[in-house]
Amino acid sequence: MLSAMAVVTTVTFAGNAVAQEGAINIGLISSLSGPIGDQGTEYANGLKLAIGQINDAGGVAALGGRKIYLNVADDTSVPAISRTLAIRLLSNDGASLLLGPYGSGPCLAAGPVAELGEHPMICSAASDKPTSQGYKYVFNRATLAGSYTEAGFAALKELSESSGVDLRKVAIIYEDGAYGTSGNEQADSIAAKYSITLTDHIAFHTNTPDLSPFVSRAVASGAKSILIFAYTGDAVNLVRAVRLLKAPLLVLASGATNVTMVKLGQIADGVVAVGDWNDDLPKPDVAPFVQAYKAKYASEPSMVAAWGYSDGFYVKEVLSNTGSTDPKALRDTIARLKVTAGPAVGIMPYDSYGFDDDGLAMNQLGRVVATQVQNGRMVTIWPGRVATAKLDTSTLK
Amino acid sequence: MLNATLQGIVSGALVGGMYATVGIGLTLIFGVVRIVNFAHGSFLMAAAYCSWLLFVHFQVDPYLSAVIVVPAFFLIGVAYYWVLMKPMVGQSLLAQALITIAVSYVIENSALGMFGSEMRVVSMPYSILSVSIGPIVVPYTRLIAGVIGLAATTGMYLVLWRSDIGIAVRAGAADQPIAEAMGINAHATQAFVTGISLACAALGGVVLLPIFAASPQMGVDFTLLSFLIIVLGGMGNFFGALVGGIILGVTESLGSTFFNGSTGHMLTFALFVILLVLKPRGILESRR
User: Fold this and answer.
1) What ipTM score was computed for the predicted complex, to two decimals?
2) Which of B19, B120, B260, B269 to mutate to probe the A interface, most A CBs <10 Å?
3) What digits encode the pLDDT tens for the residues A358-369?
4) How far is CA A344 from CA A50, A148, A338, B40, B229, in A?
5) A2-143+283-363 has CATH 3.40.50.2300 classification
């Protein structure tokens, strides 16, 4: 038995050696398990799909057709493990560049390792903290939570003007934890800029079984829309409460709840969400990506899967433009490169992908889209340049 | 104001009826087997996932799925007793607690591994329907939860107080050596009670699925809730769990009607502390 295990172990290591020989070593730290395991897995799946396509197409031409070896590590959604994995991938496994971790906590934990080791790291964090530490080697590819809120208000303003239905009286319904409280505070400071009147700020405790009293309060405050900062289960209950009370309110939620909202069926029709991807975007590479993802993973790609796919092709552009795998040279390329062609931007709502001087993904507001559930599927309704449908106001009557 | 109060009381009492059923399951194990089952909420969560799976793969209505899920969890409960709880009977409270906590971790992490952390919802047309009684709006899902909770509680009362097996269970709980001397198989009755307990948890998971969403985290939430109910009503007290469940449901509902977030939630615990100061052994005296 032991000898059999030894053989298997040897074969496995030998296999890795073959996979790495001559290949460009890229590390990926993602949360494949734990509380954010679903999103971390989707990011990894999108990235693996991209890397597979790049390798199948002949690898990175500028580096003599070398293929990319993606060294995947699961941090189990625990920041301390992200840090340990970053040390392992950079010091022991020889990765030239790190993708991930996924999530603000893991990014903050692994950031110092990349900075001290002088290896570029492109992580995904809804918080601005990872890129406000003065680091040179840490980049954040995500759209910040505050950017989603601001874009949501901009969308409400424009949709009010284009639809003739004034949606700018907004009640905020937020869970009273760190996420909801910070979202509520940010909304307060942004609203006036977009002529939004905040009619009420209503906090609830997560997992409260009956949220209809909060919806009634929002209606009584004169709101025409509710902006919700809630985890998926609570967001679902809020939508149910709005429909139960037949409240004429536009629900503005986070794009992270899209997959679940669609599964709600007719009840969710009319719900608007802000995110930075949708599968109906009128961009050339969206349909091939969706088709390839479904063929490989037998499921619909989410927004986060699209991030992974886009990042795979972005890394290829970085390698091509650098012409080497030297970590410092790669960092300098990432700091200056703005990708404007290829699947890195061909599946996304924006036309240029790169990073600002502080390491945060550029064009934070310009990358956000608003989607609405119409007849059981998400369609893009804002901004006009990528919209595939108009705002449906039938649930507001 | 009056309407909102009435609305809060009715809505809370209906959900509280189902909370009571879940709490009764926990109090039964404690009262009869003398083990505190920290995995109670995890079994509720597992049942909710079973109901969700039946809905997704076979389009079985969540309420109808109770016909399959509840008996299945009764059998799981019987097996749970013979395999894990029986060896713990008479052991230290710490050992008993640790093994049930370990079971809860196994169930929770299995759910996380199998289903991820995504909330799983069922979308039924009746989940946004309601009946109006004057100014009070009663959602169908809460009405069903209240009616099923009341029916289950009545059924358990009849089994425990009006049947031979109920007499055996209560005799074993009152004095196990004497009960055994009278020919009662104490372990068989305890296994039966454990089965009933898990069936109650499963019923809670199934009936609450259209109101909440299934997630691995819900197990911990409902374990805490169950403990609040049975401590409030009196540990091991059948009727105490009923009263505790309804008080908790109504307090929770009124708290969210008149107060913001944590303040409303805090009221539940403030009431809990006040009642325990006034009645340290729970609202009702122990009656098994």
Assistant:
1) 0.71
2) B260
3) 999 999 999 999
4) 10, 21, 11, 48, 54
5) yes
